[in-house]
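HUMAN: Mind sharing a backbone?

ASSISTANT:
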Amino acid sequence: MSTEQPAPISTGTSASTDPVERVIRYHVQTKHHYNRYARSLGFLDWVNQPDPFRRFEGAKLVSLPLLRPEDEPASPLYRAIYTSGAVLSQPITLLTLSRFFEFALALSAWKKAGESEWALRSNPSSGNLHPTEGYIIVPGIEGLNLTPGLYHYAPKEHGLEQRAEFSLEAFARLIAPFPADAFLFGLTSVHWREAWKYGERAFRYCNHDVGHAIGAARIAAATLGWNMVLLDDLDQNTVALLLGTNRKEDFTDAEPEHPDCLAVIWPSGDVKGETSDVKCQEGKEIPLFLDSRVVRDVVKCGWHGKANRLSREHGIHWDIIDHVAEASWKPAADRGAVSLPVSSVTAHSAPLTPHGHSAGQIIRQRRSAVGFDGRMSITAGAFFDMLQRVMPYPDQRQLNRPMPWDCWPYDPAIHLMLFVHRVEGLTPGLYFLVRDRRRLSIIQQSMNPDLNWVPAAGCPESLPLYWLLEGDARQLAVQVSCRQDIAGASAFSFGMLAEFEEGLRERGAWWYPRLFWESGLLGQVLYLEAEVAGVRATGIGCFFDDPVHDIVAVKGQSLQSLYHFTIGGPVEDQRLQTLPPYGHLLHGK
């Protein structure tokens, strides 16, 4: 990729001070064009490739048990996790916490080619670079040598490193507003891991990965009958304080971590072996924030561990990433709340294709396709089922969001522009899925007025999918996806178009990362749905931004493509050997 410095972009006199203008400038500057890519190093500096595993030297490591698929807690059927009340809630124990991390952030396999080995994980990542780090804040847990505090998840060891030890009283005050047995889950990003390969565009990819991790965690929680809600009315300073990313003394010679988000997770309904008081609280509200004064008291405690350095040298430091991270820093927000879910409501209204896959089987086998065969088609029914899963509302009433959209405290801002190649019963061409039908007229007004907007043939009435243009879109999909054949050799591919400038100006610059989070969350759902359908998916971060917009003549920056995705019949690389995820622990390596 070219490292050519793009010409300065004029955003007005307020560009250096107005956060919204600054994030828009970043977005424009990091677009790929036919004649110029966003800036990167231009080659892979293998000597300084970042260590994919963060550790905190001096922090106590508590190992989680390595569970076999048949061990308790058993995984429910995949389709059951989307039906409210279908999965009996498990208590929080040594075993269930291990299963949660296995499905959310753990290693899923090792790949080997010659003398080289690399790990895959349950949560996908751009370039398999894994900038995302996971944390939990828990009370003391029976059967697990954990005292109340903050723990960093170490995926290679499948263990928890104790970063801070909170007093029982302080933790109780922190968690008091939430349902019984709740704990907190946090995510951070090491921007350098992506910048090493992708340069200035890395901030985008880091936030894609945050969205994937949010989705992976929500789905992992659902396999245990647990609920999860993103606490996104928190200001980012409070997130940094609680996750310890502001502790410069713990990152003296190491790459810093950017505090992204916190969520609350809790058992729902009747817990196996006991009766929880959560059920009687249904319909009540829980806050989307933490009391910052309580947080300040909680972190006045003993801290442990120093972060390891991931690369010996960094070569180029991409200041533009620091600038956009600063501009999009979330300030104090209104203190909102959400109602606890009502477990008697069936969340998925569309008929499901019968299958007997367990959720664990689908999660464990998920991979990113490296190529497609250019021949396999999928049925219209399977196609419509996939799209139903990304709809945040089960019907037109905008009530009772299905999992995993119940964790996302915002109305949808991402819609799909689909290149349909081989879907039985559908004419090849360009389609559009409006994920919030209330936004249909606004989206139509943002695009070419001559597009068809005809409801897709055979589509369920509950699915707002429209046919825009007829024709073979394979070459077009390849062309705008950085000329990558996977976009045209699949059954279908799509770009995720965000309602962009209006949302930023109404909400603020902090909304920018969340657009990518929603894209990643959407992608995580479709990764698993592809596996259920007997095909495979892969995310595409490299695409020519404005040529994508030109296909439908997007007006200004009303809509912007943030992420591309493609699904089809995979071609396996027979040169690669697949090894079990934790053989190195079982064999003492």
